[in-house]
Every structure is written in structure tokens, then in C-alpha cells.
Amino acid sequence: MILPYPKDALHKAMLYRLLIGLLDAKDVAREIFFKGGTCAAMLEWLDRFSIDLDFDLSRNADRPKLKRLLKRIFNANGFRVAEEAKNELYFILKYQAPPGTRNNLKLSIIDLPVRANVYQPQYLSDIARFAVCQTVETMFANKLIAVTDRFKKYHTIAGRDIYDIHYFFTQGYGYNQEVITERTGVSPAVYLRELSEFIRQKITERIISEDLSYLLPPTKFQVARRTLKSEVLIFLQSAKSHAPLIQQA
Q: Which of 71, 75, 197, 199 is deepest in the core (most CB within 10 A)?
């Protein structure tokens, strides 16, 4: 995973420390499936910095037991729980850092079963560990949905979602169409049309800049800030023309 600025080295180290702790605890590792920007960046599917850890939860996981195990891992690795959700495995963790620098990270383990999601073991060379991860096609499909889903649930927009979609398209990755149909209830073509309209109306240069300025090196950020929206709309227009119009049974 890239490091845009030297000041982010501590955060990257703490992110990896926590991830190693999770994967080395077998009772935890078997219940969580790695996903999101950090996963993609560590597998070289994405070329930006990422600051959080995101997982899917296995269907039959014992959540109270898992929460107890997680807190042991936090304590053993020098993290303090600053915030946690009552009914979800969601934590804001603090670690020691110099004044005025980043000193917390988010761990999210989502209990949202999606039958169409596909996972496979992957080797994370940065930390010399294996993890069960979403496939790139599954990750791409969920990222396409994240743009509108985040807005519906939290009324927020993440510029990094747009960047990730753009990068996945430029690399020629396919997306899992069944994930889109299962999660949205409409065909891929219909959803991609809705997504295009959402991006056209809601995404601004300010949104892109606020989210990406600390995740990309300065030169790459300046290019993305100017061209990201228009290029993503071009990619989506092409994808719509090749996507199924009818929901698959």
C-alpha cells in the first residue's frame, strides 16, 4: 500500500499491527472476511492510501464471543476503544501518536449477509499473512453500490468511492452482477443508470478534494480532482450499454 506522506507511516504501521493481531487469532480470523480500500490496496488492486479496516462477518459467528476476543486483541496491541457501536462490531480505536497527528483508526465488521459475495484466500505480502478476502469482482460490485448506499443510510458522500470505481474501471476489472441485483433489487443496467444520475447531480470537485487530498500523492491528487467525475461517467455509460437490462432469476 502506498504512503502519500511520511507523516502517515505511523498510521500504516498501526493499521498493519492490528490486522496482524486479527489474522493471528484463529478464532477471530475464521469469522471475518477482509474487504474495502485497505484490502484492495494491500493486494495491489488499488493505488491509494487507506486508513481503516473493513470486514464482512461470517453467517454463523458468535458476536458476543467475537467482541470479547477483539477487545483482548486491542488491549494486547496498545489500542484503546474510544467509541463503539452498541449493536454492531464497529470500533474507533486510539493509539499513541505525536500531538497534531492522526491517532485513531476505524475497525468495522459488517453483519450484512450477501449470498452473491465471493471470497477467496489471498496472501498479503506486506504483512506475510493469508486472509480470506472478497474477490476483486465482488469488491467492485459492492463499491458501485456504496456510493448511493452511503448516501441513503448516512446522507454522506465519499470521494474515495468515486476514485475507486474509476481505478477499477481503468484496470479492466469486471464486477459481480449478481451482487448488484441482490443488494439493489434491480438489474445492473438499471442500477448503473441510477448511479450515473446520482454522480452527475451530487458529486462536486469539493467532495472529491476533501476525501482524496490525504489519500493520494499531490500530483496524482491534482489530476483526479479535475477529471474524476467526467471520466467515471464515461466508464459508467459504457458499462450500462453492456449490462443486463433484466433481473436474472
A: 199
Spell out the alpha helix ranges (H) of the chain.
9-24, 26-29, 36-42, 63-76, 136-154, 159-170, 177-184, 188-202, 205-212, 218-242
Query: CB neighbours of 33 closer than 8 A, spacing ≥ 6?
Result: 55, 56, 57, 58, 117, 119, 132, 133, 134
Tens digits of residue pLDDT in 115-164:
999 999 999 999 999 999 999 999 999 999 999 999 999 999 999 999 99
C-alpha torsion 215→218→221→225, nearest 10: 130
Where do we find the cell 506486506? 126
Going by the DSSP 8-state scheme, the letter that residue 74 receives in this structure is H
208 and 163 Cβ atoms separated by less than 8 Å:
yes
> Starting from the edge strand earliest in sequence, which strands make up the sheet with 32-35, in order?
80-84, 89-94, 104-110, 53-57, 32-35, 129-134, 119-124
Q: Enumerate domains of the chain plus CATH numbers.
A: 1-134 (3.10.450), 135-249 (no CATH)
pTM of the prediction?
Answer: 0.93
End-to-end CA distance of the chain: 39
Q: What is the pLDDT of residues 63-121, one digit of tens each?
A: 999 999 999 999 999 999 999 999 899 999 999 999 989 999 999 999 988 999 999 99
Name residue, grid cell 463503539. 84
Task: Please answer whether residues 158 and 199 qualify as being in contact, where contact means their C-beta atoms are separated by less than 8 angstroms.
Answer: no
**Whether 175 contacts 139, CB under 8 Å:** no
DSSP 3-state assignment of 56?
strand
